Every structure is written in structure tokens, then in C-alpha cells.
Amino acid sequence: MSFHLKLFFLCLPVLLNMSQAQIRTVPRLPENGFAERIRSAVDSVWIVDTHEHLEVEEARISRAADLDFTHLFRHYALEDLTSASNSYDIIGVIFGSDFSEQERWQLFEPYFSAMRSTGYGRVPLIVANDLYGISDITTTTYEELSQQIRQVSKPGLYRDILKKKARIELSIQDGGHQQFDPQLFHHVERFDDFIMLSSASAVELIAQRTGVSIQNLDDYLDALRHAVISGVERKMVGIKSALAYNRTLAYGNCEPEQAQQLFAELLSGKISPLMH
Questions:
Q1: Where residue 252 falls among pLDDT bands split at 50, 70, 90?
Q2: Are residues 157 and 199 in contact, defined by beta-carbon separation less than 8 angstroms?
């Protein structure tokens, strides 16, 4: 008997025990309709949406006349459309206004066909069905979908979708200093620009924004405190950092004297950039 075969038989009891630990049998199958009961139970749960980038409802409504079926593809689905087309120029035409909706659909359709089964591609289909009552996005339905999108773009849209249909108790917006409906949203703010410094002019922009004259590191920290306090006064509920897109998150400790020296050199123009 070969070594590998012996090893297999030695490990077989362990593998069988592991498989049994992963499988749970029931004496009988649940009554028919269990899938729908599970769906109904899940759909009844109220949730908190912890990460959103929604525009304010007023901005959406102000653009109502210009919206069409492409509105459902302006987030992550756009990335898959771009991959399917392999052309930013074509995507620019599809989402532009230089051609008629029919002409843009004709460009759009083959790329949508190529990406409609991806995770991002499924989202617009779910939205069309669940929010607009259109079971598929096709040559015969895209105009009706565009019309529905325009028609519902009126005050109360977000409350109807987020509260009544999605059962979202509260959404946390990552949208800067914009003011959102407090009954629907809380918000977080970013202070990444205080970390990603590159020049004295960047420091001056922060000084102008915070109203704090920055001559040294202590002044800079005061400006940061002022910015955070202002965020609290705007009722922010947290701080969002997106620095992982730009740099490592390994922050080393630095002695105060060294930090003060480096900051002074940055202000004087002796070093630039301070961070990459």
C-alpha cells in the first residue's frame, strides 16, 4: 500500500467527524412554505444602515426631469458596465445628454447583457422590480422605468423607500457637512486632510477653514480640536477615515520634539511632502 493511500485511511475518521460536525439533520422537513416564512421574518426586521453616500433628497428632486434608467447604474454597477464596454468614452455617451434616450439604450443594452448577472448588475434589476414594479430591464420596459423614476422623484421619496419599503430605522451618511433629515439620517465626518499633509499651503487651507492661525504644531492641534468640536455641533455621530485608500494604516509613534521640528520644517518649506 502506498504512503499516500495509508495517509488517506489514517485521516478518514477525522474527515468523517469533521463532516458530521458541519451537518445537522432534522427528523422531518419543515412544512411547505418555509422559504417564504424565512423571507417574511427577515423582511420584518428593522435595521440601521451604517454606511451611505446618498445625495440630499432636494438635490435628487431638483434633477427629476433629467433622470432616466441610467440613474440605477450610477454607482457600483457603473464599474461593471465600464468593464463590459472597455471604454470610458462609450460610458460617457450612455450617461450623457447629447443623444436621445433610445440611442443611449441601444449603446447600453449589449453591455448590460454582459454584466446583468454580476452582483452589481443584479442590484438595478432588484430596484426596478421592488421599487418601480418592473420585473426586468429590457427594450420594452426601459422607457417605462425612466418614467417611473421621474414620477416618484418628489418630496417624501426617501421616507417612502427607506422607512416604508426597506424598513431602515436610521442611515449613517458619509456626506461631509451637508444637513440631512434627522428623522432618517445621522452623519459622520472626515478629518483625513489633517493627516495627509503635503505643504505649507495645505496647512494654510486648514487654518482658513477652521479660523485658527497656525504657526506651530500646537496651533495645528488646536485647529483639529476646533474642527472636531464643529462636527459635534453639527451633530456628527462618528468620524470616518478613508486613508487606507492612500496610505498604510501603520501609524508609528513620534516624540513630541521630533513632530514639532518636522512640522516647523514643513511650514518653512524645508521638507515637502511630509507624508506620501
A1: confident
A2: no
